[in-house]
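Record type: monomer structure entry
Structure origin: computed from sequence
Chain ID: A
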Amino acid sequence: MTDEAGMLPVEPLRGSQLTAAQNSTTDESKARPGPQAFDEFRISREVHDAIAEMGYVKPTDVQSAVIEPAMAGHDLVVQARTGSGKTSAFGVPIVERLRAGVASPGLPQALVLTPTRELAVQVGEELRKLGGKKGLKTLAIYGGMPMGPQRSALDQGLDIVVGTPGRLLDHIRRRNLGLSEIKHFVLDEADEMLSMGFWDEVTELLGMAPTSRQTMLFSATLPYDVARASAQYLREPVRLDLSGDDLTVEGIDNAIYHLVADIPKPRQLLYVLEEERPTAAIVFCNTRYETEMIAKYLTQSGFIAEAISGSFRQAERERVMERTKQGELRFMVATDIAARGIDINDLSHVFNYSLPEFSEVYLHRVGRTGRIGKVGCAVSLVDGPGLATLSLLERQFGIHFVEKTLPSEAEVSRRRSERIMKELLERASVAEVSQHMPVAQEILGKSEAVQVIAFLLKSYFNTQAAEAERHSRTAPSQPQPQPQHQHQSQHSESAPSGEASAEGSRRRRRRRRRRGGRGGERGPMSEYGEVIDMREALAENSDAPPPPEAAPASAPAGEAVSEEPATPAVIAAPGGNGSQAPAVAAAPSGMTRLRVNIGFDDGFKGRGAVAKKIAS
């Protein structure tokens, strides 16, 4: 028997009636799991059909534990890691308990707060699918988009609003949005909102909603401020701890590679990528500038990679993520801020080019892989200072790290040849090449076969790079980054006059010779053979971009770097026969373009090794 809204009746569940599975603070929680099929939940046919269409076969641990107490109307504090299916865990109870067609203009019935625009879009889309068959209207509201269309949608009456705190407050102050009719209030990734500095806005929004609302708080970790807020704003909440030490990295293999001193760090990353062979991955860096340099380096080494940072416009961020979801982009190089909210289910690996400063951030990084029951891999490059972070992670979260050995140069060269050979064979198997077979057979019979094949490989890589550049050119342009360190200009030398000018010129020339470059382009060398970029050192703990007018990006030792302000050329893969192939990695508008010359001595033996393998 159903009510007027077509929802199956739900009897209130008292706190004393909660099963151990629903209150995992007891030791029985693991021995007595909740429902193992969606048919066991008392949900309407419309929602059940929506769940089936979304591809869910059986509930995840979080869904199994959360749905029943949430349907009973309890406030919840749920500690669960990213990618555990928590959106449907709170989404199913919300859409079940709401009635369509009763929302007033600007007065939604449910509000979901998220830390990022990307997560708002993803949560909004999932809730739209869950509630669509019941006629519920859902909208994601976030910054970076015009307010006019959002205001118009609010005026038409929305049942569920998903949004970021700042943009929601903007609409409230403009009287486009009110919270007086909120029945369900969800804080998704509460610890992330705290770490990003949104907590004052979060508590302000909580204070505006009716005290009779149901509040559900989801967080991977529970910092003090989040725990205090749960005590202040939630009514006798049910605590569900589903991310204990043994569950935090469930389904994720954690591995480390110790850095060696005689190989540049970016090249060691390439060695690791050839060893691990990920299908799709995120490479995490600690600064925006580092992401840009690594993305260019990977692209010039034959991988399909793009950087993503907080300076990207929303449309550009969505373009990069969509390319990754569609399998067009193999590597996304990102900062923690840029990656927050990214929800891609098929990432095989997460790589930590640099370990995070805080141990909790590691959990959010590795939570991008191993989602919804899949097995993932988290791989970190570790130096001396990183050992302390590893020790803390082992003690605090019980993570077991497998130590792996960096492959030899010969092994990397062999694997790289095999990878390129496989990619070429896959492309050749679906291409019409019969008209070229006679010429190919004749080439293989010549003594110059290796040289010809190396040339053809060069053309192939150039074509691949041109396609990547076209993707970048068709993307929306981005704003020019503004200088963040204005104090640097105060230390620049003023142009002296007369004798002082001549003496100043001599001093500058001597400094240039000591630096080994023009105008101080090259900085001191790091222990890994990389040029230290002073802008990156200044921005070590910041996600701010470096000043555009400062020195170009650092690069591994032995690889020349020069600024390229002109129209970018095609990216050339490493050249063979001792030649150097100049390359300019495609960069979004407003970002520094770098020309990197990678020669035959780049540690991979260039195209020559691949050409010899093909010829043999």
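Annotation 1: Residues 449-474 form the longest helix (26 residues).
Annotation 2: The first strand starts at residue 76 and ends at 79.
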